[in-house]
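Sorry, I am new here, but would you mind making up a protein's amino acid sequence and the tokens describing how it folds?
***
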Amino acid sequence: MFKCCLFIISLLAIIVSCNPKKSETAEFQEVSANESEENIEPSPNTFIIKGFSDEYYGKLYVEDQNEVFTPGWIAIYRKSDNKELIKVESEELAFSLHEGEVKANIQELPYGEQSIIIYDDFNFDGIKDFAIMDGQESCYHGPSFAIYLGNKKNDFDHDGEFSRLAHEYCGMFNYDPEEKMISVMTKSGCCWHQFSQFAVENNIPVEILTTIIDNFNPPYEIETTKERKNGKMVESTTKSIDVTEIDTLLTFTLENNKEVFVFPLNSSILNYVLLKEDGAIDFDYFYDVKDENHQPFKLETTSQGKNLTFVNRNITYKIYESKNDIGIEVDMNGKIYDLKGKLPTKQGSLSKIKASEFENVNP
């Protein structure tokens, strides 16, 4: 009987020694669940994106990493439990490798590298947000982003208004935490650019200022400004010219300090420009055949010298030049205004104009 009991006790001891303690098993499972992104091994065509947050890491999967643009997806995970929080699928992802790794938070605006994940506070509420590349839908087939705003519940909500700013312009928007301002730009070819600024009001980006610069008709530049005043966008337009880029035939300054320039455009079109003291165009004329209010220039030789006349909207302008005098005579419904010029400022002469060389000048 004693030997039987001793055998049973020995057998129980062996069974217990062969099974790990329950607490040790639970500890092992906890370590596996909380495995950090540094220990996750990437698989083929999958990249682990780390180093941008103490709480989150990312994954990038692409079908073909040798292609410039490739289908794939980007996901954000919470480190504490590896839970997937955000996943964005796309038909066109583009990325760069840095020593074999994909880096987050690179913004070389507007045309340089832009990371597939940008983690920062875009709405200036003190909580960081995510910008996740979702394709190439911004200007000139550039990168576009889906914006997910963080909240106090440690979740992220997709936001259509912020995402629009990262789709309808050139790449990801720029953001200034000190000024609490978002900036975007877009363009059309070499000669049309738009720059806009947005403030964040009630968690919504609100357009504050937009500037459009149009250089489609050099040497002229048209700048249109839209600025929010008292809740409404107020538009103003200024036209300017780079006088260093023109071949001036005649220029002089009026007694009111405005400057007159007469010059050819595209060799065969005569132009007249009157500049304000600040360099902005006060008035310009070149004769547009499509405008019924426009008429060709008329070049006359008199006993006193030469005159260059044109009519715009029933107002007649006559640039007169003689040995001792220069200026502009303006006829408004029979009322004559004589805008005297400063003779010492005169450069060039109306005698340089040959009517036969211009499409819009009649002798």
